[in-house]
Specification:
Number of domains: 1
Largest sheet: none
Helix content: over 70%
Structural class: mainly alpha
Order of helices and strands: HHHHHHHHHH
Length: 211
């Protein structure tokens, strides 16, 4: 693998990580509710989800999932339903990892935030599509596969930590506004509505892939 190839892979992955989506919304909400340091439970959940998709892509299983309309539809509709659930919960100010709250004692954190973040990432088939489409483009077939996958995998995890750490930091900077009931209510309505919109967009993903 050349340095040019690695640099292109790293920059492309970083741009994708920084692109706002359900995971970014969740981390910003965690930053506002829990502060920067306590957000790393959720960041770890998202990183594990991406690591799982990376591993699937590396072993070729992801390609089989995408080739099966039934399996892909199951993943997609579970994701749509879960995003709708989280979006409606946020709009109604119900407790979840995506809900902004003024009281840290009431905020979802720790293992609960970790599992919710993991499910959010795993329920997003766009992440699966990304790794299937991207990873093979950078693999050098004439060189040992293991070291290349290790380098790319570690890079993905590091960029996940950096990108979502940045989102957590930005969220923590807005933490002082969480004492304002109107800010909390409106933030949850906006994030919940965006999740519902993402869910609707995800519902059309099959047509974009198979149509």
């Amino acid at each position: 693998m050349s340095w040019d190839t690695y640099a292109i892979f790293a920059v492309t992955t970083l741009v994708v990580c920084l692109t706002p989506g359900p995971a970014a919304l969740l981390i910003v909400a965690q930053g506002i509710s829990n502060g920067f340091r306590r957000s790393y439970w959720a960041i770890a959940g998202i990183a594990l989800g991406n690591a799982a998709y990376f591993a699937l892509s590396a072993t070729g299983i992801a390609a089989l999932i995408l080739a099966s309309s039934t399996l892909f539809s199951v993943i997609k509709w579970i994701g749509v339903a879960y995003l709708f659930y989280l979006g409606i919960a946020a709009i109604r100010n119900q407790s979840s990892a995506l809900t902004v709250t003024a009281e840290r004692a009431d905020a979802v954190h720790g293992l609960r935030a970790f599992w919710q973040a993991l499910v959010v990432e795993l329920s997003n088939p766009k992440a699966l599509l990304y790794f299937v489409a991207l990873l093979p483009q950078f693999i050098h077939p004439a060189k040992p596969l293991g070291p290349q996958l290790l380098i790319f995998g570690v890079t993905c995890l590091a960029l996940d930590g950096f990108s979502y750490g940045l989102y957590a930091w930005l969220g923590s900077k807005a933490q002082r506004f969480s004492a304002n009931a109107s800010f909390v209510r409106n933030s949850n309505r906006v994030s919940g509505s965006l999740l519902v919109v993402v869910g609707v967009m995800m519902a059309t993903l099959k047509r974009a892939v198979h149509g």
